[in-house]
Amino acid sequence: MTLRELVALAYGNLAMAHYAVTHGDKQYSKTAYMIRAKLTRGLRYGSMAMGSVLADEKLKFHNGAQCSYCGCTEQIVLDHLIPGAAGGRDTGDNLLPACKRCNSSKGSKDFLRWYQARGEFPPLMVLRRYLKVLVITAETAGVMDYPVDSDGVREVPFAIEAIPVTCFPLPDLLRL
Ligand SMILES: [Zn+2]
After folding, report:
1. Measured between alpha carbons, how far is 63 from 51 in angstroms, rounded to an integer?
2. What is the pTM of this model?
3. Is 173 inside any structural domain?
4. Residue 174 placed within a domain
5. Residue 93: inside a domain
6. At residue 2, what are phi and psi to the nearest 5 degrees?
7. Which of 33, 102, 109, 125 could form a disulfide with 114 if both were Cys (CB 3.0 to 4.6 A apart)?
8. CA of 96 to the centre of ligand 1 (A)
9. 81 and 129 in contact (C-beta within 8 Å)?
10. How many domains does the chain fold into?
11. How close is the Cα of 70 to the center of ligand 1, in Å?
C-alpha cells in the first residue's frame, strides 16, 4: 500500500466518523458510508482534495480558545502537533491551542502514540489536522506514492503505523 492509499482510507473513515458525530448518530448510516466511499476513491485517484487547514482555523475562532485535546478552557498555550524535536515546524498548520496539562503530558511524544499509550481514540479534528500536515510534509518530500514501509516514508516525522485506517469505534465513543 502506498502512503496516498493509506491516507485516502484513513481520511475517508474520518469523514464518515465526523458525519456521524455531528449528526448525533448512534450507528454509521448509509449516508456516512457513502461519504466514506466517495472521499476515499476521490483522494486515491486525485479527483478530490482534503479541505484546507484554513477552513479548520475558521472553526477554531468560533469555538474560542479551548484545548484541542481535552476541551478544557484554562491555561491555554500553543502546542506543536508535530513536536519541534521531531522536525515539526513553527507554522500555523502545526500549532494548536492546548491546556498546559495536555501540553506537558504530550511533551515531545507523537500525538497518535500519546493517545495510543492511554488506550484512547484521538479527537477527530486533531486527527484530521495530523493527516493534513502529514500530506503537506509528504508532498514536499515527494513520497506520497511510496510504499508505506519504504525508507522515504519512514523519514517523515509521523507515526504512520499508528494512524487509524479502518477500525473506527462507534460514533458514541468519538468526539470532535
Ligand atoms: Zn487539555
Report:
1. 19
2. 0.93
3. no
4. no
5. yes
6. -90, 165
7. 109
8. 11
9. yes
10. 1
11. 4
